[in-house]
C-alpha cells in the first residue's frame, strides 16, 4: 500500500490530493479567477498559489486524518505548464520532502489526468482524448508509453474556448468554458465555421480568428467581406457559442474515431478540463455507440486539474519502483506525454 500526497499547480488551479492504495482520502483545490474579459498571467497566478498552498496542505491532511509520517511519497507536477505556478508547487514539495524526510517524485501532468481517469472510470485500455486549456491530444498506450496519435498544431481547444469567452466578456467564474457551454444550450442555430482537421491533427487558431470577426465585426482590420457579412449583426452570443462548440467538438470526435479504428479499440476516455463539457461527452458517446464502443468520462472533481491525479500517478510510479534523485526535482514547461516510461503497466 502506497500513501501519496500530490501537488498540482500548473495553471490557474492549485490543488492538493492524498490517495492510499487507490482510495481517495482528500482532494482540495482553489482556483484563481480573474475579471471578465481577462486571462490569468503567470506572475499573479503564482502569487495566488503561494497564498493558498500551505492552507490546502494542512486541510488535506486534516481531511485524510493523516500525519506526515503516514505518507510514503510526495508528488508534484513537473510539467508541462506555466513556469511560475509550477515552481510554487515544486518548491513546496521539495521543502516538505526535506522537512518530513519523505521521497519526492515529479509527475507529468497529462499522465496524471490519464491515470486518474482510468482509476475512477475503470477503463482498461482506452483511446484517450486529453482536452484542456493547454493541451489537446489523442493518445493510446503501447509498449510502456502513452503514444500521441494526433494533437493540436497551434492552440489547445480549451484555450480557444477561453479566449472566445474573453472576447464576448463572459465571466471566468467558475470557468470560461463552462459559461460558454451554458450559453450554447440556449441556441440551436448553427453558423458555418472553418473545420480544420489535418490528418490526425487539428487547428483552432483560424476558427478563433474567424468567429472573433463575427462577434466583433467592427474591430476587424481586414475589411474583406465574409460570406455571412450581411447577417453578422443577427448572430447572438448563444448562436456563436453553440456553433463554436459543435464545430470544434466534431473535429475532436473525428480524430478520436480514427484512432479507435487504427488501434482496434472499443473504449474512449475523455480527460482534462474540457472533458467536463456535457455536449462533448454526448457527441463522443454517440460516436462510440455507433461503433459498438463505450465512452468513459469523469465529473469536475477529477476532470479539472487537481492534486489527487498527481498523487495517484505518483503512487503508481513509486509502487513500480520509480525513484527520482533530489537534484532532478525541477520543473519544465515542455514535458511530452510520450516522454514518460510507463513502468507500472504490464499490458
From TrEMBL:
Q: What is this protein called?
A: N(6)-L-threonylcarbamoyladenine synthase
* Reactions that this protein is recorded to catalyse: L-threonylcarbamoyladenylate + adenosine(37) in tRNA = N(6)-L-threonylcarbamoyladenosine(37) in tRNA + AMP + H(+)
What residues bind substrate, as annotated? 130-134, 162, 177, 181, 277
Known EC number? 2.3.1.234
Q: Name one Pfam family in it.
A: TsaD
**Family statement drawn from the similarity comment of this UniProt entry:** Belongs to the KAE1 / TsaD family.
Q: Which GO terms describe its molecular function?
A: metal ion binding; tRNA N(6)-L-threonylcarbamoyladenine synthase activity
| InterPro entries reported in the protein's UniProt record | ATPase_NBD (IPR043129), Gcp-like_dom (IPR000905), KAE1/TsaD (IPR017861), Kae1_archaea_euk (IPR034680), Peptidase_M22_CS (IPR017860)
**UniProt keyword annotations, A-Z:** Acyltransferase, Cytoplasm, Metal-binding, Nucleus, Transferase, tRNA processing
Cellular compartments annotated: Cytoplasm; Nucleus
Query: Example GO biological process term?
Result: tRNA threonylcarbamoyladenosine modification
Co-factor note (free text): Binds 1 divalent metal cation per subunit.
GO cellular component term, pick one: EKC/KEOPS complex
Binding sites annotated in the UniProt record for a divalent metal cation? 109, 113, 130, 305
The Gcp-like domain is annotated at 24-311
What does the record give as cofactor? a divalent metal cation
Amino acid at each position: 500500500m502506497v500513501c501519496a500526497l500530490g501537488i498540482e499547480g500548473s495553471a490557474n488551479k492549485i490543488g492538493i490530493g492524498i490517495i492510499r492504495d487507490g482510495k481517495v482520502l482528500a482532494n482540495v483545490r482553489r482556483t484563481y479567477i480573474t475579471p471578465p474579459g481577462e486571462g490569468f498571467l503567470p506572475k499573479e497566478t503564482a502569487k495566488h498559489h503561494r497564498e493558498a498552498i500551505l492552507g490546502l496542505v494542512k486541510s488535506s491532511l486534516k481531511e485524510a486524518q493523516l500525519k506526515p509520517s503516514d505518507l510514503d511519497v510526495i508528488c508534484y507536477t513537473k510539467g508541462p505548464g506555466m513556469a511560475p505556478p509550477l515552481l510554487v508547487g515544486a518548491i513546496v514539495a521539495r521543502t516538505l520532502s526535506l522537512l518530513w524526510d519523505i521521497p519526492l517524485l515529479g509527475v507529468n501532468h497529462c499522465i496524471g489526468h490519464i491515470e486518474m481517469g482510468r482509476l475512477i472510470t475503470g477503463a482498461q485500455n482506452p483511446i484517450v482524448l486529453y482536452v484542456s486549456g493547454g493541451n489537446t491530444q489523442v493518445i493510446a498506450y503501447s509498449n510502456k508509453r502513452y503514444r500521441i496519435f494526433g494533437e493540436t498544431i497551434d492552440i489547445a481547444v480549451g484555450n480557444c474556448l477561453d479566449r472566445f469567452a474573453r472576447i464576448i466578456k463572459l465571466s471566468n467564474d467558475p470557468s470560461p468554458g463552462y459559461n460558454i457551454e451554458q450559453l450554447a444550450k440556449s441556441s440551436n442555430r448553427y453558423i458555418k465555421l472553418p473545420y480544420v482537421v489535418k490528418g490526425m491533427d487539428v487547428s483552432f487558431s483560424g476558427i478563433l480568428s474567424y468567429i472573433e470577426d463575427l462577434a466583433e465585426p467592427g474591430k476587424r482590420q481586414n475589411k474583406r467581406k465574409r460570406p455571412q457579412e450581411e447577417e453578422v449583426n443577427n448572430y447572438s452570443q448563444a448562436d456563436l457559442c453553440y456553433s463554436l462548440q459543435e464545430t470544434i467538438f466534431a473535429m475532436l470526435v473525428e480524430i478520436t474515431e480514427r484512432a479507435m479504428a487504427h488501434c482496434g479499440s472499443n473504449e474512449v476516455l475523455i480527460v482534462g478540463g474540457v472533458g467536463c463539457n456535457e455536449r462533448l461527452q454526448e457527441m463522443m458517446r454517440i460516436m462510440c455507440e455507433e461503433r459498438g464502443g463505450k465512452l468513459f468520462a469523469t465529473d469536475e472533481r477529477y476532470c479539472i486539474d487537481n492534486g489527487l491525479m498527481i498523487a495517484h500517478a505518483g503512487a503508481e510510479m513509486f509502487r513500480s519502483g520509480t525513484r527520482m534523485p533530489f537534484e532532478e526535482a525541477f520543473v519544465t514547461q515542455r514535458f511530452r506525454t510520450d516522454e514518460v516510461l510507463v513502468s507500472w503497466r504490464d499490458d
